[in-house]
Amino acid sequence: MTALTGIVAAMPAIDAPAKARTRQLAIDALRGLVMVFMLVDHVRETFFLYRQVTDPMDALTIAPILFFTRMSSQLCAPVFIALTGLSAYLYGQSHTQKETSLFLLKRGAFLIFLELTFVGFAWSAQFPPHTFWLQVIWCIGWCMIALAGLLYLPHFAQIAVGAIIVAGHNLLDGIVLTPESPFFAIWAILHQRAVIDLGGGMIAKTTYPILPWIGVILLGYAAGPWFARGSDAALRTKRLLILGGTLLVAFLILRWINVYGDKPWVYTGDTLRTVMSFISATKYPPSLMFLLPTLGLGALLVVLFEKTEHSRAISWLAILGGAPMFFYLLHLYVLKALYLIAFQIWGANHETYFGFDTVPALWLCAALLIVPLYIPSRWFAELKQRRKDIWWLRYL
Running DSSP on this structure, what letter comes out for residue 176? Predict the structure, then answer.
């Protein structure tokens, strides 16, 4: 991570003017793109329950078409959480450090509340649920709360702490606690994917252990000066290209060495299966081999989106990225409603589930949902821009 630290450490050198609209449009468009990938993956989660995939995906058994469908969504959480950190920095440009920290605390707590209530209900249709799934919104909430304190660190310390967490947390993989340990629940939330018994027949599953993601949001915040008011757009492009390329090359080298950062990949004798094994990485919690290529690709996509800001696709994606939480809640409830309606009409056609028979049907379903989801998302994004006086809109 020496190259990464050196690149990011140079960030304060900003002097030439840049177009704020281009900068923000690219950020929103990238956020919108990952929302589309997320939609495809959640259609899979809804209508392919009978064909669940492992983490990391088993390249030896999973159908390639399902493998790469799932792989497309791997970009979502790393990019979204890094952009959350970046957005916090940009928010801080027009607010004091204390105001920014307080906003992160309040919004983080609000997201945790959403995960335990509205988001959880959208997945289970049960209240109170038997199982609390502590997933990505819960994770983002805690990351924001952590960032509320970490933003007081000096800039270089933010880079160093973020890089150490991202690059070094796999050293902790060998620490596995049992429910008998007094630190089990805390460690399960931080780094060990596990089941916590809450009593009364209820459990919590720590799907998204938060420690590595704290490193990601902190690095996103530390990248803020590249996007600050008055920053040099050409210099930002150069640095993003170097950063993205460095992370991708680092992934290829470290993954080829096959000794650190994730479970080993295997040579199968079949080129496609070997490639699948090579790129399949652990997401829960995200390994170094998961974060290097996804964050690297995210940096390169920002450059691409800034260069193509006038295209209709970028403007369309930016609308979705301008109201991410609204879109997130809306699509979950739409998918749950569609599943329940389909189940009532056709019943279980795959064991105890209703589901599509083919992967292309998932893609078609996601494509058909885009416009119905886009229209209310555009309305809400425009409302947020128009009604700055409505304080609670900032939390969505």
Answer: -
Closest by CA position to 215, among listed 263, 174, 164:
164
Provide the domain count of the chain: 1
Residue 128: how many other CB atoms lie within 10 Å = 12
Residues 50-72: pLDDT tens digits? 998 999 999 989 999 999 999 99
Greater confidence, 346 or 23?
346
- The CA distances from residue 20 to 15, 29, 226, 380, in Å, are 14, 14, 12, 22
Chain mean position to CA 259? 26
Helices (H), the chain: 2-9, 20-47, 64-72, 76-92, 97-114, 120-124, 136-150, 155-168, 184-190, 211-222, 233-257, 271-279, 288-307, 312-321, 324-346, 359-386
Q: Which of 150, 152, 122 is nearest to 135 (CA)?
A: 122
Residue 291 lies in domain:
2-395
Dihedral Cα 63, 68, 70, 76, nearest 10 deg: 170
Distance between CA 358 and CA 250 in Å, rounded? 36
List, for residues 155-180, the tens digit of each pLDDT value.
Answer: 999 999 999 999 999 999 999 999 99
Residue 14 reports pLDDT greater than 50: no
d(CA 319, CA 332): 18
Q: Show the tokens assigned to 106.
A: 């309040």
Ranges 103-107, 180-184, 350-354: which has the least confidence: 350-354
pLDDT at 24: 85
**Strand-strand pairing, 195-199 and 202-205:** antiparallel
Let me know: does 307 contact 92? Beta carbons within 8 Å: no
Taking the whole predicted model, whether its pTM rises above 0.85 is answered as: yes
Compute the distance between CA of residue 385 and CA of residue 297 in angstroms, rounded to an integer: 29
Q: How far is residue 378 from each of residues 91, 176, 209, 230, 337, measured CA to CA in Å?
A: 22, 45, 32, 29, 21
The alpha carbons of the chain give a radius of gyration, in whole angstroms, of: 21
The token pair that represents 132 in the structure block: 């609390």
How far are the Cα atoms of 26, 27, 371, 379 from residue 310, in angstroms, in the given order? 10, 14, 21, 21
Strand arrangement, sheet containing 131-133: 131-133, 202-205, 195-199
DSSP 201: T
Name the residue among 261, 295, 252 with its Cα closest to residue 281.
261
For β-strands 202-205 and 131-133, DSSP reports them as: parallel
Provide the 8-state DSSP code for 42: H
Residues 6+ apart with CB under 8 A from 272: 64
Q: Which amino acid is at 392?
A: W
